[in-house]
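Below is how a single chain appears once it has passed through the pipeline. First comes the sequence as given, then the structure the pipeline wrote out for it. We keep one example in the README because the format questions we get most often are answered faster by looking than by reading.
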Amino acid sequence: MADQRVIVIGAGMGGLAAAADLARAGAQVTVCERAGGVGGKMRHVIAGGAAIDAGPTVFTMRWIFDGLFGDAGERLDDHLGLVPAKTLARHAWRQGGTLDLFADIARSADAIGAFAGPDEARAYLAFCAQSKDIYNTLAREFIAAERPSVAGLVARLGPRRMPDLWRTMPMRTLWNALGDHFRDPRLRQLFGRYATYVGASPWSAPATLMLIAHVEQDGVWLVRGGIHAVARAIQDLAQRHGAQFRFGAELQQILIERGRVAGVLLTNGERLPADAVVFNGDISALTDEARPVPVTAPRARSLSAVTWCLSARTSGFDLAHHNVFFAEDYRREFDTVFRQRGITDAPTVYLCAQDRGEAGSAQSGSPERLLALINAPADGDRAPLDAAAIADLSTRAFGLMQACGLTVTPVADPVVTTPSGFHALFPATGGALYGRANHGMMGSFARAGASGKVPGLYLAGGSVHPGPGIPMATMSGRLAAARLLADWAGGPERRRAIHIRSGLT
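Resulting structure:
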């Protein structure tokens, strides 16, 4: 194994996890990253002199990370400061009403009862039970499986568990299924937002995404030092086992000789030979020769976003760490994005107040670090938004928060990222932040698995199975490493052993 050379392209969460597992197994691992540091979409932006997390902000499914470090004989808690979040998120509506969801289900039910009445509180408890049932059906047999397929899922579950699979409601949309539980449109709006966690519309995404509710109830953690610390901790783990990192090293071409991967060519003209390559980029950036699934068409792309990273003073609304501000017409928001390729007049605003919460240190009246985000179409490879359009979006987004009671007063100009900015950061995406949109019954099965089309090529990241998000992208890296090691070992036994040690029983 010590003579086997692996090049990992991209130091996002998938690439980092693959590098850690492969280096621990004894491979010579070199990670090439075009940016100046690790993290991929988990990037830092400096605004008003403060370092602000500018990408994913929710840390869940810590068993994946416990497994990654545990397999290396280490404890995650020795390398990351994780604080369980008591308040999952604070939600507010322009037409009135504020609702907190908590890690404690009974406490959330009480809050929902006070917000919308006892019938809705009982409906919430039934919703939680169903989301747990869906998660328990799919966690191992789909999420942690190497390659998604209907036949493979059915085979892994077996005949006795077919009723369990049917209860995941793959034929129904999330929005439709939420109507079975909630009469209050604000609650359907709140829980429909889970579709956006994978860059989809609740009117098109399958009801199986209800499992996200259980994922959050199973634990959301705040990370001391910011979410970017997760990427740095995995980088350190990989380096302790011998992985080398090269930054400012941009891929030009994956080299293929005699029908298999032979290395990579960088844009500076340097050729790096390799026995295998793990590609941690968007699947659409690969050539037809290497990509095992079709390129993602523009209208099949997931959501993009417009984000504002800023240091600001706030007043009028008691912020939690995670906050969501809603207008009234939720369906119009997604119709505008996915059908009209625009942004609705009053878009939902997600606001991460990074100095708030159990791990925060916000002081009254002092500037605090904020990330504001609205959904946008992934058309960043087309005409970019001009300054006037960005100013108008800022007025709309911050005006909605003002209508919900929050006043935001920046102390310096914000750093704004649009779909064209995300496209520049993540080539071939159009700015899509989640790969292919998870729409329709087959959306979850349209992603590539851990293997590329060419022998010696392996795939990781949010655009491949099991999908986007910090834990899922990390899992994809582990699956890619496990598949590579199984190929080198000559059979599936090695792959299964790695999965079991990762906590998948």
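The longest strand covers residues 304-315.

See the next section for the split statistics.
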